[in-house]
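so i finally got all the pieces together for this one. its four components total, 1380 residues if u count the protein bits. some of the lines might not be protein, just check the labels. i wanna see the whole assembly predicted at once instead of chain by chain like last time, that was a mess tbh
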Amino acid sequence: MTYTATVVGANGFTGGELCRLLVGHPNFDLVQATSRSNENRTLGHAHPNLRDIDLRFSSPDDLKSVDTLFAATPHGVSMSDIDRFQDAADTVVDLSADFRLPAESFYDDYYDGHSCPELLESAVYALPELNREKLSGAAFIAAGGCNATATILGLLPLVENGVLDGDEQVVVDVKVGSSEGGASGGEAASHPERSGVVRPYAPAGHRHEAEISAFLGLDVAFSVHAVDMVRGASATCHVFPEEPVSKADLWQDYRGTYDEEPFVDLVAGGGGVYRYPEPKSVAGTNRAEIGFELDPESERIVVLSAIDNMMKGSAGQAVHAANIALGIDEKTGLTQRGLHPVGAP
Amino acid sequence: MTYTATVVGANGFTGGELCRLLVGHPNFDLVQATSRSNENRTLGHAHPNLRDIDLRFSSPDDLKSVDTLFAATPHGVSMSDIDRFQDAADTVVDLSADFRLPAESFYDDYYDGHSCPELLESAVYALPELNREKLSGAAFIAAGGCNATATILGLLPLVENGVLDGDEQVVVDVKVGSSEGGASGGEAASHPERSGVVRPYAPAGHRHEAEISAFLGLDVAFSVHAVDMVRGASATCHVFPEEPVSKADLWQDYRGTYDEEPFVDLVAGGGGVYRYPEPKSVAGTNRAEIGFELDPESERIVVLSAIDNMMKGSAGQAVHAANIALGIDEKTGLTQRGLHPVGAP
Amino acid sequence: MTYTATVVGANGFTGGELCRLLVGHPNFDLVQATSRSNENRTLGHAHPNLRDIDLRFSSPDDLKSVDTLFAATPHGVSMSDIDRFQDAADTVVDLSADFRLPAESFYDDYYDGHSCPELLESAVYALPELNREKLSGAAFIAAGGCNATATILGLLPLVENGVLDGDEQVVVDVKVGSSEGGASGGEAASHPERSGVVRPYAPAGHRHEAEISAFLGLDVAFSVHAVDMVRGASATCHVFPEEPVSKADLWQDYRGTYDEEPFVDLVAGGGGVYRYPEPKSVAGTNRAEIGFELDPESERIVVLSAIDNMMKGSAGQAVHAANIALGIDEKTGLTQRGLHPVGAP
Amino acid sequence: MTYTATVVGANGFTGGELCRLLVGHPNFDLVQATSRSNENRTLGHAHPNLRDIDLRFSSPDDLKSVDTLFAATPHGVSMSDIDRFQDAADTVVDLSADFRLPAESFYDDYYDGHSCPELLESAVYALPELNREKLSGAAFIAAGGCNATATILGLLPLVENGVLDGDEQVVVDVKVGSSEGGASGGEAASHPERSGVVRPYAPAGHRHEAEISAFLGLDVAFSVHAVDMVRGASATCHVFPEEPVSKADLWQDYRGTYDEEPFVDLVAGGGGVYRYPEPKSVAGTNRAEIGFELDPESERIVVLSAIDNMMKGSAGQAVHAANIALGIDEKTGLTQRGLHPVGAP
């Protein structure tokens, strides 16, 4: 079965990534891609990887009636336009932060409040590893934040298996690429300033803490650093369990959670250059790499989690969730393989 | 129909790229991948993008009998092992320089001679845009060099249409990524030394001149610079035609040569960031982007050509040629789409 | 003797570089640094390397009376404000393009004309290797463009020694870093788009052609590519002499021109990683590295020239010229040594 | 007064950095630089920033008698050659790990034991912020590790002021550049593999833990990641104090410890791009930038510390310590200013 689809905000990085996935997806037919600034221009004008696609950006004011609408708009737009989106499509997948948190209090604490909190409970958080059942048949889906996604995937097996129950100390130190900042640029995002950085842009108070709290029940100590790559988010989670754990038990926990997951790979060390999860290894793919080390000195579990922030951390997650919602085989359109070697994707 | 395939030298970058393409190709069944240094280790040990592939490196000394053998060995190996390769497979595709030039004199001039020059004429140069007919049914194929491929693709329409006939001045200034140097490393290739460079590693005397001479009949002034990317080769060809040419005529020439080509895209300028060919736009794909500008001041045609050196410049070209040789639809297994944004792939 | 100095446009990259040089210069006393957008903020707010400097940006509307004023404003500003600059200071050094060309016709051909062409002949082009005598005592100095500087330095010995007299074919292929685009950013300059590029941003028609024509008497075929570094300009000049030349003669020519020059180093090949000029080797310094190879095949001289576009290509050149104009030892304040290893400065 | 100096292991990155500092230092006269592999070649052969230096590498087997010897040899060499070094010079500064820890037990736990543990107590750890008094007149100095240096500088004020006394949870997440791996290369250090990484190369068990334990009395949870830069080490220290602390108190602590320190700058937030410590801001300098944020949610102090691993983390620290040992003004030869903008130094 084929579903017609619209991408709102298709000019941006996430919107472009959605278009890339949808034009290669056998069950979607991308019929509309909106952009105010590039109206009437080809998709290839903004996204050189879509030069062969015969579609032009249209105005976001004239939404076609479609089966599925993906909104890749800046935070705040979906809040105000959600009625139009839902009128235009049976299934709405929002990639902004506007509906990803389950209660108004999160928006009061981490954002500038919410204009339609009554809709929050109707939106399903898109992460399949967390919410596969709720996603089935869902009409309103909200994709997670990339840093939160990397963290949640890293810690989920510890929560599911009782190693973490909310009282333990957890420090999460995230490193992210520049695509996270979006296509709009700005001084800090300019190449001369952004190149070669290790920039602690959110040592404390990052908004993605809210998702980790909401969906894992953990209040983690969370810091985010910008590093020199374009795609990628890497979460190093320093976990101090209350009881000692063995490596064997941990592997059992991680395997139990992820062995059936099509997009999570456990990276089990061994030798070689790529013995731990790395964003390079998953760039351009919907895969997450998860691994860990045990530090006997500090009785610490060091969980390592790597994703492509544009894929598993955003557009790929959205399509994955839409697949599940619509009853499509969930891997469809998301099996792109990564590259080796690859620079700073 | 499915063809069994072996990759010799699968531990290296080009060998790994071949494996990536073959495991995703519906008409090939990768049954052997050899590596002396990583014998018995999984492909994923060397290539993190192949972690899911259930195959281990085997010794290059024990070649299975297969339909097609791809040799991605250092220059010189194929010369000495060609008998073994041809005994093991009906179709041999060599990715080294050992058989890509059509006459012994080239090896005398640019290499250290040749040990079996009598075989040179049986090898078909793999570039389909040049040799599609000869490739059909070919049993012995030699893939081109990446810098030569970028250059030949840029200049071919000018040769085919008589703008260039060998007497004109042509300067080719190539910029390449670090993957061209292979996986073996070395001081100049180390990250601290190689990072951020504009390094004129072959201002004159680059071996790929030989291919341009052999297949286009042009003696170009050729220089190659290492720049900071991993994948990619970009050729800027400064062409001084004997007669003035118009932009319209040139477009007609380029369209005439490439309109039917599945892997060559003409990039026609216009506005936006990506108005010229760029390696970033084709990274991870088998596409070549070709474009040009006319410089009225110097009566110069500036031809711009961009490829992924690992794909169109090597492994992709090899699989493309093998498709043609074996009668498989030539696009099969080579339709990966690029990414946007992407860093320094 | 100490000269008071003002930097106009100190918020930008070139202005910041001027401040860096002047605060470390024993004969200058930086008393004013103007910035409209950062008025009243410390220099360190814009330039982290100046955090220890106890000076705040002031309005460009209130210029103090000083000995020397350096204008690092966008093109066009100096044209309209030159009277104010000259009223405020005995010596004015302009780093924009507004006065660097010696005749109005260049501004008609390459820019949008000129509003005060009668002043052009009073401005001395700042490149000491070309104009040392004229600079002595000069009250109005115009620094060269970075790409032109790299090119002129590479070709000057050939012109001085009659190898080039204007009739020969010369192709100049320049690779530049992102700092050339200035601090104002923009979509093409954003890290996700600019990272990892080989982008032919001016295949033809670059404005710096005008300087090469004006000061060397050469109409070169000129193309500029953006590559992934922040600082640096590298010019590869493909020169086709009318008469054959020997390597020994060329070295004699280059030594004759540069042996006494304090900021030009001839890089004579040999072995090792750094056997040719490279922008990395001169980053952060006022040095130019110049070298060449002879290509017997194409009877071509490949001249290689590397500078830091912010230093020898702009602020360093300006201070160097000011030193000469004011009778200060010309090396003063410009002897910073480069780093090794260094990434993509 | 001028001291003659030898650098042993001058071919490597740290050795080259020592040479750079010593040739620019008014109180040192570099008379010998040893390298086995580059014997008789000029310093400029290995280090392009030293092309003007008229000195050739000599054999490490023939050490001249000098005032001061700096050993920049791989770990293990100083242990076996310390007698020769001390015979050759009155003052020996070792930059390896061989003598930096104060007790044999550390070498048993973190290294492969020690061959002359009786000498350990005669070596003074070089970090002046920790050991200024002991360094005065010292004849045997051992420079700290770069990751340890960044961490110790970040946490020292908390220890000195009793915020940390050894019982608190401290997680240190370090990001380092590729120069840390040295000049010898290897597969993981090759540009194609190392470019664009966030690679957790030591999630647990890093040897620099030993120094933090030895000199701060803290057992921190320590992880090190390789990121894409050449120079630089950035430590993010997540500190959980037993008692709540105020930002004002913390600033008082940090100012108390560092206000008189010539090479430590407190970066106090505010606006702008560079409101936190960053390796880019200190690249090429002997400065450390230190700052912090308070996270009310997790009652966490996030301490941020950035150094150039080659300077403050190694060669600069060594020269700083030698200055103090010899009674030279301690800033001498170490006042190089950083660059802005700068890429990935």
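Chain D has two domains: 3-143+311-326, 146-307.
The radius of gyration of chain D is 19 Å.
anyway lmk what u think
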